[in-house]
Amino acid sequence: MKSISLASLVVAIGSAKFALGVAEYGQCGGSGWTGDTTCDSGLTCVYQNDWYYQCLKSSSTATTTTSKTTTTTTKITTTTTKTTTTATSSSTGTSAKGTPVGFGAGTTGGAGGVTVTPTTQAELITYLSDSTTRTIILTKIFDFTTYYGTTTGKACKPWTCTNGYTPQMTIDTGKGECDASLTLYSVTYYQAGHDYSLKVGSNKTLLGQGSSTGIKGIGLEISGVSNVIVQNIQITDINSQYVWGGDAILITGSSKVWVDHNYIARVGRQFIVTGFDPATQVTISNNYFDGTTSYSASCNGEHYWFLLFAGSADTITVTNNHIYKTSGRGPHVGGISGYNQQIHIVNNYYDTVGGHAIDAAVSSHILVEGNYFKSVTTPDTGTSSGGLEYFVQTVSDATTCANYLTRYCEWNRFESSGTVASRLDTSVLSALDQSAVNNLTPMGVADVPTYVVANAGVGIVN
Ligand SMILES: *[C@@H]1O[C@H](CO)[C@@H](O)[C@H](O)[C@H]1NC(C)=O
After folding, report:
1. Distance between CA atoms of 437 and 458, rounded to whole angstroms?
2. Does one domain contain both 48 and 127?
3. 408: domain CATH number?
4. Where does the secretion signal sit in this chain (predicted)?
5. Which of 196, 233, 258, 370 has a CB 3.0–4.6 Å from the CB of 208, allowing a cystine?
6. Measuring from atom 2 of ligand 1, which residue has the nearest CA?
7. Same domain, yes or no, for 81 and 120?
8. Which domain does 73 fall in, by range?
9. What is the DSSP string of 56-72?
10. What is the pLDDT of residues 176-221, one digit of tens each?
């Protein structure tokens, strides 16, 4: 179990590379791949998707030992078939693909229940919210933007951009959202985003087919339930010009939630938020979080309110996500003393973050390993917020993990990014010595950008 990371560490620090071919977890093929296609001995080049083949231990692959040439040919045939049948939308699957790694392991959603394909918003509301075990297939975008009408209220302008960007305004509902010194303006916004959400019951899979399905103008509320999968959908355009315009996904008082291979963009508030009741056994994986916005509170075209984990006992794995143009809260964790969040942030691709990524406040325990930070101004906000973190930067940091976990850690890598002061709270490792962390063997950080860009978001798994 301590085998792979050391090899990748040795390669990464530029010491002699003994390997004859591609190392374990390296890319060895896929559409457009011009690199090495031969794996080290003992490894097999395994199809992951049309754009990415990966070298894996032969014993860990379920596939037979077909030669790679044969496999490639088969996939080209499949691709052709898929392209042909996409137009008639009949070839995509009706159950979630894959299984979650990390804290969300064991989440099955609507598996074993009935499968339904809603055609109206009202059907979708019912199928999602009742207590029947179900897989709900989305074959189009369900646009809720105007479904509950508009309302006129007050908003203030907490930010002023002097560089040409237009910042968000903040909706004031009289609960102190706007500082008393700020002028209040009359604004109109959509109630679907601000006052409503799509409530999700227990034992549900919400599964999009293709790359253009999902919900628009409203978020999901996963509250007081268990066993939910949200896979391959878009969630977009929720009053994005207003702070408090709406969250894309709220998870609170719930367990076993897998948010996988989705696309989230242009929301008013958080992309994903928990709190204050515990969000346990949650895995957030392979999503494309697109923070590009015309209403940037941080005056840089990027969305500030990204991930907020504030629950009293959250256990969350964040892995293999493409995090693009967010500028804050990536994630913000904790903030209330006496709570206890256990968060594993591993193998994500932070791509262009004009503010900060990880922000650990009091009560948080965060292991940060194997992430690739490209053009990230502040990868970590440092110790001032009071949280506990183990942020892997050196060989020594990575090997120390094995004194607590059953494996080494993978280090984080920076490209055109800010530096991170040493954050090595080993109590984080003690807290995270759990199967959800031990059993997740990170890929080498050098492979993260290519892998994540090819795998994250909608239209990949279904
Ligand atoms: C969800 O499924 C489990 C296992 O079948 C069952 O025990 C539980 O009662 C279900 N939850 C609801 C709310 O129906």
Report:
1. 26
2. no
3. 2.160.20.10
4. 1-23
5. 233
6. 203
7. no
8. 4-86
9. EEGGG--S----HHHHH
10. 899 999 999 999 999 999 999 999 999 999 999 999 999 999 999 9
